[in-house]
Amino acid sequence: MRHGGQILVDHLKAEGIRRVFSVPGESFLAALDGLHQSGIENVVCRQEGGAAMMAEAHAKLTGEVGICFVTRGPGATNASAGIHIAKQDSTPMILFVGQIDTGHRDREAFQEVDYRQVFGGLAKWATEVDDIRRLPEYLSRAFHLAQSGRPGPVVIALPENMLSSLADVPDLPPRKAPLSVPAEAETAAIWDALKGAEKPLLVVGGPTWSKEAAADLGQLAAATGLPVAVTFRRQDRLDNRHKNYVGDLGVGMNPKLGQRLRDADLVLVIGGRLGDTATNGYELMDPAAPGKTILHVHADADELGHVWRPDLGIVSPAPAMIAALKTSVPQGLPDWSAWTEATRAEYEAFVTPRETPGDVKLEQVMRWLSDNVEDDAVATNGAGNYAAWMHRYFRPRAYPGQLAPTSGSMGYGFPASVAASLERPGATVLCFAGDGCFQMTINEMSTARQYGATPIVIVANNGRYGTIRMHQERHYPARVSGTELFNPDYAALARAYGGHGETVTRTEDFPEAFARAKAAGTVAVIELVLDPEALSPGQELSAARAQGEAAKS
Description:
Elements: E1 2-3, H1 4-14, E2 19-22, H2 29-35, E3 41-44, H3 48-62, E4 66-70, H4 74-89, E5 93-99, H5 115-119, E6 125-128, H6 135-147, E7 153-159, H7 160-164, E8 166-167, H8 184-195, E9 200-204, H9 211-224, E10 228-231, E11 245-249, H10 255-263, E12 266-270, E13 293-298, E14 312-315, H11 318-326, H12 337-350, H13 362-372, E15 378-381, H14 386-393, E16 402-403, H15 413-423, E17 429-434, H16 435-439, H17 445-451, E18 456-461, H18 466-475, H19 490-496, E19 500-504, H20 510-519, E20 524-529, H21 541-552
Parallel strand pairs: 2-3, 2-4, 4-5, 5-7, 6-7, 9-10, 9-12, 10-11, 12-13, 13-14, 15-16, 15-17, 17-18, 18-20, 19-20
Antiparallel strand pairs: 1-8
Helix pairs in contact: 1-2, 1-6, 3-4, 3-15, 9-11, 13-14, 18-21
């Protein structure tokens, strides 16, 4: 006889779960008891949003299912930010929510929430387990759904009386991934279509990536001469130094790469969804009239034709298709070298730093880090204009090297960096954050110290919500409202937590500050004091205001 918490934890162990993230609650005491001496590390966080983001980042980094435990009501709603990230980023994740006793249901009991309704539109599946005898069945289905097709989050509510009750039920074996090897006819159809293309573009993105897939993609690009672009915040899918890598299709993309997407006569999309971010709000490609051949490879059949009508649609995980294409490159492909070399040259020009105002040049800091950190460094970030400097000038070189939310969620970078540092204790883990972004989850500094995580946080402090200010100046010039920020002394705050903290006011001082932060052996914060005029990599604040005023006149 086992209580529900033990049945649950035994299943997690069978699925290979090594680490979970949580904020404890009395609603799932039996699950906490199951975790006791289970061998599964329980990383206790300071707020449920941070816990969910850590679980999501852990899944991205490892390819495992991210597991998060939170309590009912406010605990679950706090965690919803991480569920939204997992949904839009196609990340396999399970959120376990403690729930009220089933005998109190529908009385608006303390912290009562209908999780099927709350998470029905955010998760792949949201459910509640009433019968302990069916718990193994629900757990098995959750792991299958979280990882199948287009991966995503599952939410399971666990009533406390169900978890604490006893049952003698057998465990179900762990999930076995289905075999997935593209058929020869499918790869042949792709090659036949490519043979007729003069200006093809290979666009890669999506989840379920691996080191092997990144290596295979590099070999495929070299063997074919195809230019390779990646989707938003998936820059680590191919070493950015590869001569066929031409940049990322996302916020702040190279306008010339956007034009290449517009001009391409064939777009081969593998793994990604090619959404509004990659197409600049569908301006570069119109789903109603694409004007080009579209080949779409995706693990979920429902994504084929969801937005784009593919001329050829193939159901396959991206790594499997790339491996199959790498080993089947035919003779007689067109010579695309001029097209690819010109696109690569445009990329290299774009990542040559453009000077911005101020004594701290964020473009120079990003480029220095890109040139000096180890190839296996992991970089994380949330959302804000600072990230445009990162995406443009910091170039990932090995997978997994980038953890960032395609959903554009602020506050993600720091929890993600804590999760990455716990998983990769010997690697350099960088967290890029704006002052607004960092303050949303800065409380997880305590979690980092408790568990020995050692990320280095680079805080770009311009005293405002920069992205919103940029749009504000363009649409309502000089009418500043709701975008100014008060900031703490970030270096002193880091030291108050027992970490390492420094403030940098000149670009030339950054390398030594970084060396000290790295040598500190603890969580570190380097605050960069930026000139507020440095609004974005390509435009100053005054220029954005002038643009807005010109548009109004």
